[in-house]
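Final report, Chapter 2: Outcomes

The project's central promise was a pipeline that accepts a single protein chain and returns its three-dimensional structure in a standardized token representation, suitable for archiving and comparison. That pipeline is now operational. To close this chapter, we reproduce one record exactly as it appears in the project archive, with the input sequence first and the structure output second.
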Amino acid sequence: MTAMYHKRFFLDVNVTTVLVVALLIVGWWGVGEAFLLVPVVALMGAVATAFDASYLTFARWYAAYLERYLNERLGERVLVAAELEDAYLFELGTAKVVTVPLGGGFSWFSFMTLFYTIIGAAAYGFGIILGWGVLAAAPMPIVVLYLTLLIGLTAVALVTGIWWFVSGEGERRLRRILDDRFGERTEGSSGAR
């Protein structure tokens, strides 16, 4: 399941990147309206890749509990992938912004998440800045509709992301079901220790 996450994540990143670059080129060729699509594509890419990350988190929680269950049946700690992923990627069950831990444990995986997030946010901002002249010349109802939808969807995505990832709602849901099936965790965030 985690292999599928990485495949999907990089497909979403690459498609978003190609679309953003293509829209910027079209905008610079004189079709200024293309600039105003850049923030929309960047936002869609951000939401899609965060969704991909939620799938990775889901897969890791499930695998960690299965590993713990199997290790208990074997009577020894043979399966340690969950521990490796906690150390190498990001620790499960901790406060994080998508996959970037808020309490430490920064990793290359965290850097990659921030890297793509910053590039996406910059593209979003540049799209608005580069398209501002087109927007300013548009009829007021179009301007209001565009900005309301863009700002509204951005705010909803941020609030939902904070609720799901930072507050830990998604991971709490998984843990409740897994604890019910496999019993309470004994150590560690993933329960695989």
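Archive annotation: Residues 38-74 form the longest helix (37 residues).
This record, like all others produced under the grant, will remain available to the consortium after the project formally closes.
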